[in-house]
Structures are given as structure tokens and as C-alpha cells.
UniProtKB/TrEMBL annotation:
GO terms for molecular function: thiopurine S-methyltransferase activity. It is found in: Cytoplasm. GO terms for cellular component: cytoplasm. This is thiopurine S-methyltransferase. S-adenosyl-L-methionine binds at residues 16-27, 56, 77, 121-122, 139. It holds the Pfam family TPMT. InterPro entries: SAM-dependent_MTases_sf, Thiopurine_S-MeTrfase, TPMT. One of its GO terms (biological process) is methylation. Gene3D superfamilies: Vaccinia Virus protein VP39. Keywords: Cytoplasm, Methyltransferase, S-adenosyl-L-methionine, Transferase. Its EC number is 2.1.1.67. Its main location: cytoplasm. It catalyses: S-adenosyl-L-methionine + a thiopurine = S-adenosyl-L-homocysteine + a thiopurine S-methylether.
Length: 196
């Protein structure tokens, strides 16, 4: 019964788009996430010029922060509004390019070329389209995907990771019987079994 309320909960793409449209984005952190700053060394592991993936990126300010350090950032997000706000809020020039492999998808790329944000479902991506990554910053992604899609999500993530990549995962702890999510509660045991 631990996850009884949440197991079958489905948040549609429309609901996520509506959150952005109505500004109901309590999950967005204006100042960036303190845990990324704290564990940045773990993510980078002394390496420079990494390719870093932001699943369900929204308009995360850390994308700009890491790009400014010389890394290549790739994100994916269903809300075009979120991606446009990201570039606008950082006064970053960008251009929009089609993604031939994914019907209806767009890629927003900074003119400097070091930030590429895909506007599509994360499940449309594959390593043949976006390549592989040295690091993943998963803040609010695993906990936002519908519980029934978790295995699919993690399997995809594993295919996008280079051999020595670091995966930083932020989850939330609370009583899942008191909150229907998102963010969803993912117990540590489940995280271990998902990622093996």
C-alpha cells in the first residue's frame, strides 16, 4: 500500500504545458540548486568540457552555469515556453532548428553552440540523435515521470550514458499516502533496482 495512491497516477503532457502557461512552476529554482553546487565535483570528477544532460530541463539556470564553465549542455523539455524563457531570461541568442528524426520536434540551440535544448517527449530521444553524456543532472525528472514509465525512463537514461559518466539524482522524501505527486516518491530500494 506504500505507493498505492501513486502507482497509477498519470500526469499528461497537457498538464505539464498548462503548469508553464499558468506559471504554476514551484519546481523551478531561480537561484539554481544547492545540491548541484555541493556535488559538482562528483559530477565533473576533475574533467572539463563534458557533455551534460538535463532530462525534463524546464528553464533550469544550472544549464547556463555549466555552459559558462565550458561544458556542453543538452536538455529536453515538452514546453516550448520554458525553453524560450530560458534563453530570454539569460539574454542568450539562439536559433531554432528542426529535428528530422523526430516528427514535430524542435531544437533550440544557443548561438554559441554549447546549449542545445530539444522540445519533444524525452521518450523520442535516443543516443543516435543526441549522442552520449559524461554527466546527467536529474533534478525533478525521475520524480516527475509517471510511475508506470519509470523503467522505460531509466532504461533510456542508461543508453545515453558514457562508460564513465556520473549520474546525479535528486529525489524527494515524504509520505506518499499524503501527497499524490508530482513530484512522486521513489524509494531508495526502487532507485537501486531501476539503475541496477
Amino acid at each position: 500500500a506504500e505507493l498505492g495512491l501513486q502507482k497509477d497516477r498519470v500526469v499528461t503532457q497537457e498538464e505539464w504545458l498548462r503548469k508553464w502557461e499558468t506559471g504554476n512552476i514551484g519546481f523551478h529554482k531561480e537561484q539554481g540548486h544547492p545540491l548541484l553546487q555541493k556535488y559538482l565535483d562528483v559530477l565533473l570528477n576533475g574533467r572539463s568540457g563534458l557533455r551534460i544532460f538535463f532530462p525534463l530541463c524546464g528553464k533550469a539556470v544550472e544549464m547556463k552555469w555549466l555552459a559558462d564553465m565550458g561544458h556542453n549542455v543538452v536538455g529536453v523539455e515538452v514546453s516550448e515556453q520554458a525553453l524560450k524563457e530560458f534563453f530570454a531570461e539569460h539574454s542568450l541568442p539562439y536559433h531554432e532548428v528542426p529535428v528530422p528524426e523526430i516528427s514535430g520536434a524542435k531544437k533550440f540551440q544557443s548561438t554559441s553552440g554549447n546549449i542545445s535544448l530539444y522540445c519533444c517527449s524525452i521518450y523520442d530521444l535516443s543516443s543516435s540523435i543526441v549522442g552520449k553524456f559524461d554527466g546527467v543532472w536529474d533534478r525533478g525528472a525521475l520524480v516527475a515521470v509517471n510511475p508506470r514509465d519509470r523503467q522505460r525512463y531509466v532504461s533510456l537514461m542508461i543508453t545515453l550514458m558514457e562508460k564513465n559518466s556520473s549520474y546525479l539524482l535528486v529525489t524527494v522524501c515524504y509520505d506518499p499516502n499524503k501527497h499524490k505527486g508530482p513530484p512522486f516518491y521513489v524509494p531508495e530500494s526502487e532507485i537501486k533496482s531501476l539503475f541496477g
